[in-house]
Amino acid sequence: MHDRRGALQEYLLRTQPRTVDRGRMAIVERELARVVRAGVPGAVVEFGCYRGGMTAWLRAVLDSVGADPPVHAYDSFRGLPAPGRHDSDYLAEGEFAASIGEVVTLHEQFGLRRPHLHAGWFAHTVPEQLPARIAFAYLDGDRYESTLLCLRACLPRLAPGAILVFDDYADPASPPDRAVAQPKAPGVMKACQDVFGTPLAVTVVSADPTWTLGVYRHAIPPTVSAAASSEAAR
Predict the structure, then answer these.
(1) By CB neighbour count within 10 A (0-12 exposed, 13-18 middle, 19+ buried), where does 119 fall?
(2) 86: closest CA among 137, 149, 136?
(3) Quick one: pLDDT at residue 140?
(4) Quick count: other Cβ atoms within 10 Å of Cβ 189?
(5) CB pairs under 8 A, 24+ apart, for 195-198?
(6) What is the pTM of this model?
(7) Which of 25, 42, 89, 216 has its CA 20 to 30 A from that of 133?
(8) Which of UniProt's keywords are assigned here (predicted)?
(9) pLDDT, the chain, mean
(10) Backbone phi, then psi, for 132, in 5-degree steps?
(11) How far is CA 222 from its chain centroid?
(12) What is the CATH number of the domain that holds 68?
């Protein structure tokens, strides 16, 4: 299958620099490829797709390794909801508004298979329209309530070995072993800590001094891990 990553990356860096960059794309590619190599079953999901830059990147990475799971993208397409008490007002209500047409056009432009698009507030789409099994999810909801809702919905559906990547997880100025919330989107880390009960569940990763991502790796049950190791040793 034709590898469209190079052309797509250069295009996105020119046209969508606010939400995608080389570092983010490299980390997402690495984590998604890890899921594919491990044979983790399930769909690929994105919460907060905006104009579809990362959505298209997910599909391009999957195509490059010959994997064909469905990609589901969720967005209000009306911009962000109003900030709540755990959020900052750095990002305004209505910011990041886009249209479904922009997402579809981008995929068509690069010959990528169109994702399953779910338009509406997360509370109206995610509970009823989330795939039964999830292998990988990219969470870019920016708000506490958005992240909390999506995370709670995802966890029961995660396949063993699944990976969640959180955008704007931590303050890039803080050391990874003592990470604090990203001041522009403090609700993201707060939601993760409220769900997991500990900051240790999410690993802080970054390839840039201005942002960080958080990565959660869903544990493979010991019996599954042992069976896989035994099989590999044969």
Answers:
(1) middle
(2) 149
(3) 98
(4) 26
(5) 195/148, 195/151, 195/152, 195/155
(6) 0.91
(7) 25
(8) Methyltransferase, Transferase
(9) 92
(10) -70, -30
(11) 26
(12) 3.40.50.150
